[in-house]
Write a structure and sequence with these properties.
The protein is mostly helical. The protein has one domain (3-112). The protein has helices spanning 3-15, 19-22, 28-48, 54-69, 73-80, 85-112. Helix 1 (3-15) packs antiparallel against helix 3. The longest helix is centred in the C-terminal third of the chain and has 28 residues, at 85-112. The model has no long low-confidence stretch (mean pLDDT 89). It comes from Chryseobacterium taeanense. This is HEPN domain-containing protein.
C-alpha cells in the first residue's frame, strides 16, 4: 500500500462523511478526532520519509495549529449550545478538509515521480 492509499484509508471516513452536515449540532468529538488522526498521519509520513520535505513540515504545522486552536471558541460554543456553533463547526471542517486536500495532492505528486 502506498502513502496515498494509506492516507485515504485513514482519513476518508472523516473527509467524505456527510452525516455531520445534516445534523442540527454537528459533533465536536468528530472534528477533534479528525484533527488528531490527520496530525498523527502526517507525523507518521514524516518519519517514514528519509528526506526532509518542506511541504510535509508545512502541513504538519498547519495541522498542529488547527488541533491546538480547536479547543478554544468552538469547544466553548459546543458546551454552551450557542447558535453560532454550527457555523463555526462548518468553518473548522472546511479548514481541516483543505489541509487534507493539500496532503492528498502532495502524496499524489510524489507517487507519480
Amino acid at each position: 500500500m502506498n502513502s496515498l492509499e494509506y492516507a485515504e484509508q485513514q482519513l476518508n471516513r472523516f473527509y467524505l462523511d456527510r452525516n455531520e452536515f445534516i445534523k442540527k449540532n454537528p459533533s465536536y468529538p468528530f472534528i477533534q478526532s479528525y484533527s488528531e488522526v490527520l496530525l498523527q498521519l502526517i507525523i507518521e509520513l514524516e518519519q517514514k520519509d528519509k528526506i526532509v520535505d518542506t511541504k510535509l513540515i508545512s502541513l504538519r504545522m498547519e495541522a498542529n495549529i488547527f488541533k491546538e486552536d480547536l479547543p478554544g471558541e468552538l469547544y466553548d460554543d459546543y458546551k454552551k449550545g450557542n447558535l453560532r456553533y454550527r457555523e463555526n463547526w462548518f468553518n473548522q471542517k472546511k479548514k481541516i478538509d483543505n489541509i487534507t486536500t493539500e496532503l492528498y495532492q502532495y502524496l499524489s505528486e510524489i507517487s507519480d515521480k
